[in-house]
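Pasting as-is:
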Amino acid sequence: MANNQLIAAASECSKSLLPAIGGKAASLGELVKAGAPVPPFFVITSDAYRHFIQSNGLDHEIARLQNTSADEALKVAAKLRHQIVNSPFPTELEEKLVDAFKGLTSGWGSVAVRSSATLEDALEASFAGQYETYLGVRSDGEFLESVKKCFASLFTDRAVTYRMKMGLPQDSVRMAVIAQALVKARSAGVMFTVNPLNGDPSMVVIESSWGLGEAVVKGEVTPDKYSVNKISMEVLEVYRSRSKPVRYEMLEDGTVVRKDNAAEESWEASLSLEEAVKLAEMGASLEKYFGAAQDIEWVVDQRRKFPENIFLVQSRPVTIKSTVSTPSKQSDLNPLDRIINTLLIGVKV
């Protein structure tokens, strides 16, 4: 990626560019480089953020946050948030943003706009959850406003106070922003490329439920379970739950709603055997690429046909602690809650 690049394509993103694209975007970029099907996205880089701040003369306001009392810093931060949201984009930057946004929405309709701070998860100073995400963004105006709100979220009272507590300069973190196509989930779940109950490396274990999976987290349904041999890609065991009376779905405007399933859907498998095998193949490929067993979050888009309907949204290493040493981990975690968190909030390295 070139220096001072304002927008980075998904193919350009990796952990080596974390200062420019932030932790969430870097994680997504690693999945893309691994050949995984990731919902399309682009990143508004930290250089674009800096260009916006400097063109509006706001770097001087940020400097005022240093070497002042906590009360005064919060007053300055409140003023900064207002100024950021109400300041214009430089013309060149706005044109680039709108063009990229239109290219993304032309095939997907609506997008999620997510913050990706450049020090996220670094130096034990985790900023996860302190910044903003906006769902169901459909118009140019909404998009530009959402980006500015993500910029402004660097200066919430919580974020400013946290940096003061950690002894970090207030200008030490810059904001990158991800614009990513919203997947309309038919099913979602988690996949382990090792048996999470006994550590068997020859098995891929997949859990699945209708919609976003929030019903699993709330204890309203029991997920389906698939066990696939990693070598032969044979489905060895299927547990089809008969307790899936409800689902949670995301509307085009980003609202999550609870819906009752039809009687037959309550016991119908939420994932086909061919989808399970395809997921297992993807999982095995990621395990080989990353050199370690993986814990993978996935989603099936109801608007697309197999195999183009399967997307991966996060992958992390499986640890011994999370599998063999704690056999009940799989059920205790309610693993599909991580799917909802990823789809509604975003991922982090």
